[in-house]
Write a structure and sequence with these properties.
The chain is mainly α and about 80 residues long. The chain has 3 helices and no strands. The two termini are about 40 Å apart. About 0% of the residues are buried. It comes from Crinalium epipsammum PCC 9333. This is HigA protein (Antitoxin to HigB).
Length: about 80
């Protein structure tokens, strides 16, 4: 397996245009991977919701809890 230093050294040997292409490809793949992660998380959350794993709360209670978490992240 290649180390990060080896990969960077190889990438820097590419012509400038190919380095730009590599950067775009890596960014696109990274974004796609993140989108897939978020979609999987959303599906799990929906499944948990439909399974009744969340308590019912008013919007006001949710906003209060969110504000409190900003001031006291340990809670």
């Amino acid at each position: 397996m290649n180390t990060l230093d080896q990969v960077l050294e190889t990438a820097l040997q590419l012509p400038y245009e190919q380095q730009e292409m590599l950067i775009k490809i890596l960014q696109n793949r990274h974004h796609e991977s993140r989108r897939e992660e978020m979609a999987a998380d959303a599906l799990k959350t929906l499944a948990d919701f439909h399974a009744g794993k969340f308590k019912h709360q008013s919007a006001k209670d949710v906003v209060v809890a969110l504000r409190q978490s900003l001031h006291d992240p340990e809670a």
